């Protein structure tokens, strides 16, 4: 699980910014399913929402975590050579395009708390460090990597069985040490990399990676292929779609053929069909012809249930896209309910379906607004003085009591 995520100098965020999943209340017992207690004594939220006006920086906050996850997992294979630029987006409104972006993630993995630190610019990694928490206060380092400008290479110190000389032969200045260590099959860091594999997101560098209105049916094909490979996941998706009463009797997946419109080349694809029952007869309809809400829920569940199955984190921009407002609380319940989320997976999402605030606590609500010089600022609702637990948070937010509302 993630305890906290901090970043600086990224997209519209110039200053140090933290999304805190920890419930920092002391001596307060809660039986809310929205939170869980870790074996190490921390209480963490399973669900966090990021809200604010359009263009305030909500998606950018999610992009920061999506970028970090990509870099740790895929930079070694995703960047071809040392001269290829790191696709990190510094604070957009600065003349200094060579400035350093900073990231820090505190997370637990196999009942151990770790802290990962990454500082980088577009050309190279400046600092990369991994720490393990030994007691309630102290972290000890596992490895430290620092850029040596004079030697134009990284200096590495480490406390694990890491073959440093072999690593240095393949470690390029623009890739993660963890990603490179996976390539040489270091057992410990390969296991750590497995944590990052469980961060599942619909966000990429350009923003939200799919919705049925902007990307046609590509998301349907990708989700259907994933469901075809994982029948257990598919069964859960079908049951959820039926439970929220979309008029579906079920979903079928059939093998079909798609042709490239330019080359005419055919390829095998898996096609989803909605099954409807009318007067004791069943009819199948290509899911592409179903409503936008049904299609988007079908694709969305590919992210959400995969994260729940793995015990990971789903990072979702615009969770409510094309969905009825009543569907969003049911998605929240998927993560809150121990029966449907036994591994305590987490959900971090943005939304404009603000009625969902009635289903969340103030420790689970992150507000973003853009200040002077186009700098985004982020704060958790419980950081504001005077916010009571029995407040009608939705009504007060809509009235502008907490800020982070459009100036219309």
* Low-pLDDT segments: none
Rg on CA atoms, Å: 22 Å
What's the CATH class of the largest domain, please?
Alpha Beta
Query: Tally the helices: what do you get?
Result: 9
**Topology as H/E string?**
EEEEEHEEEEEHHHEEEHHEEEHEHEEEH
The overall pLDDT, averaged over residues, is 90
Structural class computed from helices and strand pairing: alpha+beta
Strand order of the largest sheet: 2-1-6-7-8-9-10
Question: Could you say how many structural domains there are in total?
Answer: 2
N-to-C terminal Cα separation, in Å? 38 Å
The general outline is globular
CATH-scheme architecture of the largest domain:
3-Layer(aba) Sandwich
The share of residues in extended strands comes to 25-35%
Query: Mind describing the biggest β-sheet?
Result: 7 strands, antiparallel
The CATH topology of the largest domain: Rossmann fold
Task: Estimate percent helicity.
Answer: 25-40%
- Total DSSP E strands: 20
């Amino acid at each position: 699980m993630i305890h906290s995520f901090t970043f600086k100098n990224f997209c519209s965020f110039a200053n140090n910014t933290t999304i805190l999943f920890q419930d920092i209340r002391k001596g307060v017992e809660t039986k809310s399913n929205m939170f869980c207690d870790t074996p190490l004594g921390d209480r963490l939220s399973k669900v966090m929402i990021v809200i604010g006006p359009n263009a305030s920086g909500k998606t950018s906050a999610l992009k920061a975590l999506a970028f970090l996850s990509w870099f740790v997992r895929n930079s070694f294979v995703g960047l071809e050579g040392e001269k290829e630029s790191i696709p990190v987006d510094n604070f957009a409104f600065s003349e200094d395009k060579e400035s350093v972006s900073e990231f820090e993630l505190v997370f637990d993995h196999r009942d151990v708390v770790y802290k990962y630190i990454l500082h980088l610019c577009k050309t190279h990694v400046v600092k990369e460090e991994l720490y393990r928490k030994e007691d309630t206060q102290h972290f000890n380092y596992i490895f430290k990597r620092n850029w040596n400008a004079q030697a134009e290479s990284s200096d590495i110190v480490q406390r694990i069985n890491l073959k440093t000389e072999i690593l240095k032969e393949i470690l390029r200045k623009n890739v993660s040490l963890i990603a490179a260590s996976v390539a040489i099959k270091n057992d410990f860091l390969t296991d750590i990399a497995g944590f990052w594999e469980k961060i599942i997101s619909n966000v990429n560098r350009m923003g939200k990676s799919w919705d049925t209105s902007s990307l046609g049916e590509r998301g349907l094909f990708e989700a259907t292929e994933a469901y075809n490979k994982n029948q257990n996941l598919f069964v859960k998706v079908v049951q959820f779609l039926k439970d929220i009463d979309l008029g579906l009797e079920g979903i079928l997946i059939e093998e079909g053929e798609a042709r490239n419109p330019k080359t005419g080349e055919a390829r095998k694809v898996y096609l989803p069909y909605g099954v409807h029952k009318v007067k004791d007869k069943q009819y199948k309809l290509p899911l592409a012809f179903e409503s936008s809400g049904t299609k988007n829920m079908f694709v969305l569940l590919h992210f959400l249930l995969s994260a729940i199955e793995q015990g990971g984190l789903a990072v979702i921009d615009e969770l409510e896209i094309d969905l009825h407002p009543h569907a969003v609380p049911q998605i929240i319940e998927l993560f809150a309910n121990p029966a449907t989320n036994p591994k305590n997976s987490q959900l971090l999402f943005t939304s404009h379906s603000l009625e969902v605030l009635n289903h969340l606590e103030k420790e689970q609500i992150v507000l973003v607004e853009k200040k002077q010089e186009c700098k985004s600022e982020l704060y958790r609702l419980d950081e504001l003085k005077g916010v009571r637990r029995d407040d009608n948070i939705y009504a007060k937010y809509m009235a502008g009591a907490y800020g982070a509302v459009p100036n219309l």
